[in-house]
Amino acid sequence: PGAIGLIGFADAAAAKPDGYKVVMATPELLIAPYLGIGKASYEGFVPIARINADPSAITVRTDAPWKTIEEFLAYVRQNPGKATLSTSGNGAIPDLAALALEERAGLKFTRVPYQGEAPAIQAILAGQVDATVVAPGALSAHVEAQKLRVLAVTSSQRAPEFKDVPTFREKGIDVAIGTWRGLLVPKGTPPDILNRWIALTRKVVNEPKYQETLKKLNVNSIYEDGETFSKVMKENDELFKKLVPKLAASTK
What we know:
The protein is α+β, with helices and mostly antiparallel strands. Helix content is 40%, strand content 20%. It has 9 helices and 9 strands. Strand 4, helix 4 (93-105) and strand 5 form a beta-alpha-beta unit. Helix 2 packs parallel to helix 9 (226-250).
């Protein structure tokens, strides 16, 4: 842990490629180089599998005047910079998702970064901001308690726990960005060792107890093979290459 994962990423990248050191990668592995920090690159690893993907979501209080994402975006468009949006931190995935939404929809929010998801959610519950952008799973309890309303998610498909909530792509806005977790080993790991990790990962992901545990944690379980995961990282890298410099400019 430490430095948004960069200490662990660097340690794993420099490890002997013998299969005994595996890294749990997150999008920060791709973001860090564009922030000018960290030495590890996703290109220094071989992917085993992606095992999680969670979108961000635009969420408001149930007593807010906006019942749909169209109503909220119309308000933002008519009042540039007036709508306040809490995020889980400057440069965090939800913050980048909000920036991507601004870029793709021609909008202007006032993004308010907090130190993590919990404070960002507390801010919306307390009425300190108009909306929040965090992973929808983190909001489940408050949505069930009818305190919050999820308006839209930043994923290519609807979130399993909020099947009635549309994606931005359904609304004609090409924003699909979220957090994820995947397993990587250092480049040069022998194919037979890599294949053992692939087989083990696939087996564990399909175990009911594993699925049950992630569900309790509000973490969305998926399984994507190494080839698919590699494509995801490359696509994300191209997106972050464009977004992160704009993020830095927007916070000056």
